[in-house]
Amino acid sequence: MKKSFKTGYGIVLSGFLLIFNILPSFPQEGLTLDEALKIAESNSPSMKKVRLNLVRSQENLNAQNAALKSQFSLSINPIGYSQIRAFNDLISKWNSTRTTESFGLFTISQPIVLTDARVSLVNRFGYKDSYSEYTDLTTKGFSNDLSLNLEQPLFTYNRTKLQLKELQLALENAQLNYAIQLLSLENYVTQAFYYVYQQQQGLDIASQAYQNMQQSYEIIKNKVEAGISAREEMFQAELNLATTKSDFENKQVTLENAKDDFKLLIGMSLFDDIMVLPNITVDTVQIDIAFAIEKGLASRMEIRQRQISIETSEFDLIQTKALNEFKGSLGLSVGLFGDNEKFGNVYDNPTDNESVSLSLTIPLWDWGERKSRIKATEASIETENINLEEEKNNITLDIRKVYRNLLNLQNQIGIAKQNVTNAQLTYDLNLEKYKNGDLTGMDLNIFQNQLSEKQLSYTNSLISYKLELLNLKIKTLYDFEKKVPVTPVTTIKE
Questions:
Q1: pLDDT digits (tens, 9 = 90+) for 6-37
Q2: Of 281 and 458, the one with more pLDDT
Q3: Mean pLDDT of all residues in the chain?
Q4: Average pLDDT estimate for 400-419
Q5: Confidence of residue 492 (pLDDT cuts 50, 70, 90)
Q6: For residue 5, what pLDDT is reported?
Q7: pLDDT (tens digit per residue) in 320-331
Q8: Nearest to 206 by CA among 236, 258, 245
Q9: Under a CB-based contact definition with an 8 Å cutoff, are residues 194 and 466 in contact?
């Protein structure tokens, strides 16, 4: 039985070493939490998509601001020819015309944000050669038409201002969403980072347990060979050693899987070998719950997003009220027209061109459509106001829960630390009993498992406290460890 165990043990160990020798080895890189967060901000797929949405909103606003500046355009028709025979009502007979012309149109257009008007300066210069069968005459010459035009909407809302404000709010919302996603990413990355650390610690503890069990195995082996202990103790020691070794190997696999998941989350190459370097030193932080809630309600970006939703709904109400509305449009135009066969004499005998137009749209009956749509939009605004109040209540509730969790975790850290001390003392005492033959290997294995469990519990309690402090920072946008407010990033890095 003993020989069979040793043979199997040697085969498993040889296979284990062979597998790890075949696997490609890469230099291990130490990675701090700050370094991981920087990598994730640049490489995380979710952050890339949010960043692109921010770029889109910024460029839409840039385009709208550019559209509010003077627009210059030039249209050229180098040559145009037409030959038409049509009935002329003026002379009550058929008439043929043949025309050759070329012209250019130059326009300067300027929107007026203050009044939603548009002013344009238009100049049309051309040359025409036209023949009419009725008069049997050919008319040739240059012409130039210069005009200043104004188009002014009346009795309606300012569409230019409203569109500009909507794009500004869309950009602000995208900036807030970017900052929120960045904080959310920090939360996810931190949790994954500490999970990898937990697996590292689990591997270290399993390694320590394996070494302890090897030591106890050697003790019982010597005692059995000396005839001091029964051979059954040797069988139990071999089983304990194999179990501890198996746990150690399982912890290695779990750690490698955790590191791969973490690298995928932050956007690192899966072939990079990393080891996380956390700082889990915990100094208990005194927190004023009233101050925390005040900070959260004053700083949380979700509240501003709700306010933006209300403002956007109010814009929808303005547009809805314009449905079937009484409105008008005023058009003014003044210009100067001249024509002559010679280019330089175009304005020898100019003609003034003026026009004024006023148009009104008067709704008569819409069967209550406008009234119903206004009520529906008002209901949407009221819903957004309720959502805002709910958001405030949820923020307050979340902060209160985190505060209670932190108080509870402080107590758990102290208890877990004392448990580790007690478990270590208990194991040391029972190891001496085991050496003296007063304790079986099975009983010693129980105390070893208790020690490993208490060590992991202490590590987990420290990590839980750190994560809950981060949670409080995200909920309040205030760092209670450094006692400074958190300034969210709302612009992307170039």
A1: 434 343 333 443 333 434 445 677 888 888 88
A2: 458
A3: 86
A4: 92
A5: low
A6: 38
A7: 988 888 899 999
A8: 245
A9: yes
172 to 61, 67, 300, 339: CA distances (angstroms): 11, 20, 14, 54
Tens of pLDDT, residue by residue over 82-96, are 999 988 888 888 989
Q: Hey, what domains does the chain have and what are their CATH numbers?
A: 2-58+165-312+378-485 (1.20.1600.10), 70-112+117-156+328-362 (no CATH)
Residue 492 corresponds to which tokens in the numbers above? 């992307």
Instruction: Assess whether pLDDT exceeds 90 at residue 43.
Output: no
Asked whether the whole model's pTM tops 0.85, one would answer no
